[in-house]
Structure formats: C-alpha cells, structure tokens
Design brief:
The protein is built from 14 helices and 17 strands. The strands form three sheets. A nine-stranded mixed beta sheet has the order 2-3-1-4-5-6-9-10-11, with helices on both faces. A six-stranded mixed beta sheet has the order 12-13-17-14-15-16. The chain has about 475 residues and is an alpha/beta fold. Bound molecules: zinc ion.
Length: about 475
C-alpha cells in the first residue's frame, strides 16, 4: 500500500464530505485539490491504475460535447469508463473524479474492474501539460483553438505554446486526434513522432464566404497568411498557406452529406455509414467527428459508434430544450465569439421566415469573462431579418441591447437584468406553443436555470445539475 497516496485519498474524501455537510455544495474540485496537496503524485498514481489507458479531450470549444458523445459510444461498447463529467476539467477536477472511484487504500474500484477501465478526461487547455505528463494518455483529441474570453488565457499563441509543451510529455505511441479543418490544431502534427488520426468536415454545402472572426491568421512555419477554398465558421475550413506547402490534411474520419434540423443532425462517415444524433449545428457535427475518431482509435466497432452517437444527451446548457408554461425554450450556451457565431449560424439555418424569438443574455462575472467587448465580434447582424421578438438579459443587459440595436434587430420587448422579470417578460409576450431561443453566457445561464427550476420548469434538465 502507498501510505502517502492512501492519506491523500482519505484527506480528499474527508474534505468533500465536510463541504457537503456544510451545505457548501458545488466544490467538485476541492477533494482533488486537497489530495494533490497531500500527494502531488495522486493524479498519476490513481490514473495509471486504469488498465485500458487514458484519453484526453481538449480545445477551446466542444470538449464537453465531444467527451459526452465518446462516453455514450463507450457505454454502448461495454467499456467501463471513469469520466470527469461533473464539471472541473483542471487537474484537481480530474483527481476528484479518480478519488471518487478510489477505496481508502488508494486502489480504484470500478465496476467491470479498474484493469479493464478507460479514463476519459475533458481537459482544460491550461491543464493539458500536467494531464499529459501524469496520465500518459494513449490518445489526445484537440477540437479547435479559438480566442476565449479576452481576460482568461490571453493570446491564442499562449495556448498553442502550452499545447506544444504538453506534447513533449506523452509517450510517442500516443495517437493525436486532430481537427484537420483548424490550422492551429493541424500544426501540432509537425514534429510529432507518433501516429495522427485526422478528422474533418467534407460538405461544401455548409461552407460560407461571410467574413467572420478569424483567430488563426498566420502560418507558424513561414509567417504566411492562410487562404480558404471553403470556410465553415471562423478559421475552420479548407485552409492552405499562401507562403509554404502547409494545407489541410485529408481526414481519416470525415463527415459528408450533412443534414441539420432544429434538434438533430445526420451525416455520413465513409467506412461507417450514416449517423444520426440528437444535437445539431455544424460545430456539433465536428464534435461528433472528434468522438468518432477517438472511438476508432480505441478500436470500437461501427455498431457501438452509431448507437452511441444516436443516444447522446445534451450537456448542461448546450442545446437543451425545456417546456415552460407551454413555451419551448431552447438554450444555447455561448462562452466566446466563436461559439456564439456558430449558434448564430445554426439559428440562421434552422429559422424559417421572420419567426425567431430570441433572448440574448450577457453577464460579466468572472466565469463569463469580465470584458464584454467580444460581443462586437459576434455576427448578430445575420439574424436581424429573422427576428420577430427579442429580449436582452444578464447583468449587462443594457450592453446587450446596444449591441442588438447596432445589429439591426427590432427593439427588445424587454431589457431586464433580473432573471425573474426577464422570464415574466418572455411569458407576457408569447403564447403557449411558441418557441424561444435563449442565448446566454455561462453565469447568465446558471441564473436563468435556477429561476426555471424554482418555477418547476427545469426538472427535466440533464443529470449534470
Ligand atoms: Zn506557411
């Protein structure tokens, strides 16, 4: 028995129990934080007991959805999984997940046996170096690299540098699962000694010529600019460098013939056939491709992949749909300009006529990013001709209303920071049977959901409360 690990595990578990008893709630990261203080090797010692290996999923957007789709696939394949689905994707959060599965001696107890279990870890960009070093993953998927909230990690280049640092640590046998459509992700293959599995979108029907926020402007190899034959959103598409030979690699796992509906999508993956999933948006097809590519790297059969993709449930605040006094509220969390622009395009593609009711909620607490100027990088203009009624909410409701005014939206029915009064305003201006798209930042979504739950509307939300 490793006494130091056992002590760390028990200290972490005790800390978790104490916060629960004190009713502090939340706190999924605290047990891991305490355990890592007591034994900095705890993540490595616990994680490496997972006999089927570890998989990391990272990137600016789509980590949670990609991880959930892969978890659903692995469940269909009968693979026991330890997955940090409950929130924190920092090292302490991953340690908390492992602690919860550990007995008092520090041995993992997983249904089906730790020797046969796989670790699936959604990993924050900044935590990737530690996770790669400690967990020695057999595969790492990179979804995309966008500018996140301005005041969180700073420059895109800082994250790219962290990623390159992380890739110095895992064994060269690890497979990189890379988004071929994102040049910032693709360059991670340069100099990588191990295998690479590429995924990408192969459907020109969803390409655009709109100008938009582009976060990968220069080639790292030669300093040249990127040109696009087709662009799906932001800098994601058929890129090539105008100064050197670099260009989008041909994907090993591709999506063709993509069809989008308001709450589902269908696409064909060569070698697997047609897949259907209860999520929509080109960006979620990209997330599904990342999960399918990982599943293929792990050797999962085609039937389990198709069933897993079909059976996935929306994550907290991501394309959830809830009935509220006869109205259908569809919630689209937006954490940054790239994510918001994808939601804008999804609403544009799935709205017929001038029938869009939309409540946009902008808050500026720490978890949202305190600088709200990013809303000027979001193409709200695209929706202006489609909006029937709109509402502006969140702690910065006034700023949101100003942004919508410049975007040419009709005047909001209400500009209301208070979620109670905002919901009242939505009710007053709609009738049963109406649909309302809710586009909130993170804490605005938390506030709204709390109020929906209080009014009994949100009881059918997912299990991630
Ligand atoms: Zn170049």
């Amino acid at each position: 028995m490793d006494l130091r690990l056992a002590a760390a595990v028990n200290a972490g578990k005790a800390a978790g129990m104490a916060t629960r008893l004190l009713g502090r709630g939340g706190g999924t990261a605290l047990p891991g934080l305490v355990a890592l203080r007591a034994d900095p090797g705890a993540l490595r010692k616990l994680g490496r007991q997972l006999g089927r290996g570890r998989v990391l999923v990272t990137g600016t957007n789509g980590k949670t959805t990609t991880s959930r789709i892969l978890a659903s696939i692995l469940a269909e394949a009968g693979v026991p999984v330890v997955h940090n689905r409950e929130g924190s994707n920092l090292a302490r959060g991953m340690a908390s997940t492992l602690l919860a599965a550990a007995g008092p001696t520090g041995r993992l107890k997983v249904r089906g046996g730790a020797d046969h279990a796989l670790g699936l870890f959604e990993t924050d960009e900044a935590s990737l170096p530690a996770a790669a070093r400690d967990l020695a993953p057999k595969a790492i998927a990179f979804t995309n690299l966008f500018r996140d909230q301005l005041d969180r990690y700073g420059e895109v280049d800082t994250v790219a540098a962290l990623w390159r640092e992380a890739l110095a640590a895992p064994p060269p046998a690890a497979t990189l699962v890379l988004n071929a459509d994102d040049p910032s992700v693709a360059e991670l293959a340069t100099g990588w000694p191990g295998p690479v599995h590429w995924f990408g979108l192969d459907d020109p029907a969803f390409a655009t010529t709109d100008p938009g926020a582009v976060d990968a402007r220069w080639c790292r190899a030669c300093g040249g600019t990127f040109a696009y034959d087709r662009r799906y959103f932001a800098h994601i598409g058929y890129w090539r460098c105008t100064g050197c030979e670099r260009a989008r690699p041909a994907p090993d796992t591709a999506a063709e013939s993509v069809s989008l509906w308001p709450e589902s999508a269908r696409f064909t993956v060569p070698g697997l056939g047609e897949l259907e999933m209860p999520l929509t948006g080109v960006y979620n097809v990209s997330n599904a491709l990342a999960a399918v590519a990982l599943a293929r790297v792990l050797g999962v059969d085609a039937g389990a992949i198709a069933r897993g993709v079909a059976g996935v449930k929306a994550a907290f605040g991501r394309q959830e749909s809830v009935e509220f006094e006869g109205r259908r509220l569809r919630i689209f969390l937006c954490k940054n300009p790239a994510g918001a622009n994808q939601v804008i395009r999804l609403l544009q593609a799935t709205t017929a006529g001038t029938s869009l009711n939309a409540a946009t909620l902008l808050s500026d607490r720490f978890a949202d990013g305190q600088d709200v100027s990013w809303t000027w990088d979001v193409d709200y203009e695209l929706l202006a001709p489609l909006v029937a009624k709109c509402w502006a909410g969140g702690t910065r409701a006034e700023d949101m209303a100003l942004r919508l005014k410049y975007a040419g939206w009709p005047a909001p029915t209400a500009v209301e920071p208070d979620p109670v009064r905002l919901l009242d305003a939505v009710l007053a201006a709609t009738t049963p049977g109406d649909e309302v798209a809710i586009v909130p930042t993170y804490t605005a979504m938390i506030d709204l959901r709390a109020e929906l739950t209080r009014r009994g509307a949100a009881t059918r939300f997912g299990e991630d409360e």
